[in-house]
Amino acid sequence: MAFTLYNAPQSTCSQRVRFVLNAKNIPFSEIKLDLLAGDQLKTDYLKLNPNGVVPTLDHDGAIVIDSSVIIEYLDEIAPEPVNFTPENSVERARMRALMHFIDEMPAAAIRVPTFNLAFLPRFAAMSEEEFIAFAESKPLRKEFMLAMGRKGFPEKDMNAALDRLKRTLVRMDDEIAKSGGPWLLGKHITLADISVMPSIVRMADLGLDAMWQNRPSIARWYDAIRAQEAYQPTFYFGSLLTEKFPHLKKIAARPV
Ligand SMILES: N[C@@H](CCC(=O)N[C@@H](CS)C(=O)NCC(=O)O)C(=O)O
User: Fold this and answer.
1) Do residues 184 and 193 lie in contact, with contact meaning Cβ atoms separated by under 8 Å?
2) Are 206 and 158 in contact (CB under 8 A)?
3) Whose C-alpha lies nearest to ligand 1, atom 15?
4) pLDDT tens string 228-237
5) Which of 178, 198, 218, 227 is the most buried (most CB within 10 A)?
6) Cα separation of 204 and 240, whole Å?
7) Ligand 1: does its nearest atom lie under 6 Å from the Cβ of 11?
8) Among 14, 70, 140, 234, which is best to mutate for testing ligand 1, by the most ligand atoms less than 8 A from CB?
9) Pocket flag, ligand 1, residue 18 (CB < 6 Å)
């Protein structure tokens, strides 16, 4: 079986898929797209993924898109040596409900500080016409880009995103308390943990880890996920924003 992953080192959605491939010891070749240069909007790539986003998985010529769908697909076709989906239907439904919550809340909210703090200088350097043309060429993210503009999201939007991230931490805390932890659904790590992982790693990367300093169950969860064997090969050098954008190190060091 041959697997090719079209992805980007710092893309949170790609990190989910890399983690699952690594955990399952599935060899894969990686095609890295430069998202700021617009590789994801080129005609050939759009034929694979009409949403114009990463990741996209090519499995022996079968194209699978959307990170949540891809990780469920991988768990189905390669249930060994590790499996991240509960056998029990009720537990499986709970996992999927959490994955929907994660896609709607932290996975979306984390884009606001990410773009404002890391990517904005690239867009600020464009002319207004160039920026509008770039935004309008995005099948999925046109409105998001236009709302951000070349000056960035206003404080109101930043605060709303931070509030959504805070509510995510509250939800994680509640789920861990309900299941007995250490993972969201109890004793076993599931796709729900893998889905939320990149948002939490990104929060730490942006210096927002103080947001869980009074939440020991999340601190334990974060240590446990970073201790997984698949973590290091997933977050190879260049996967963190602070490794690519040195100006962020100062932002990350500020008190929240
Ligand atoms: N729901 C999709 C979202 C994919 C997505 O938003 N990917 C981002 C990187 S994490 C992307 O490719 N952005 C490119 C852009 O905004 O043009 C998934 O989970 O695969």
Assistant:
1) yes
2) no
3) 53
4) 999 999 999 9
5) 198
6) 10
7) yes
8) 140
9) no
> How remote is the CA of residue 25 from the centroid of ligand 1, in Å?
24
CB 230 within 8 A of CB 23: yes
Q: Say if ligand 1 is within 6 A of residue 138 CB.
A: yes
Strands 56-59 and 29-32, bridge-based pairing: unpaired
Place of tokens 């709303």: 160
Residue identifier of the C-alpha nearest atom 5 of ligand 1: 53
Q: Where are the alpha helices (H) located in the chain, listed in sequence order?
A: 12-23, 43-48, 67-77, 89-104, 106-109, 111-114, 120-124, 128-136, 142-148, 155-179, 191-205, 216-226, 231-234, 241-244, 247-252
Query: For residues 204 and 247, what is the distance between their CA atoms, to the nearest angstrom?
Result: 15
Cβ atoms 73, 64 nearer than 8 A: yes
What is the per-residue pLDDT across 98-127, written as a single tens digit (0 to 9) for each?
999 999 999 999 999 999 999 998 899 999
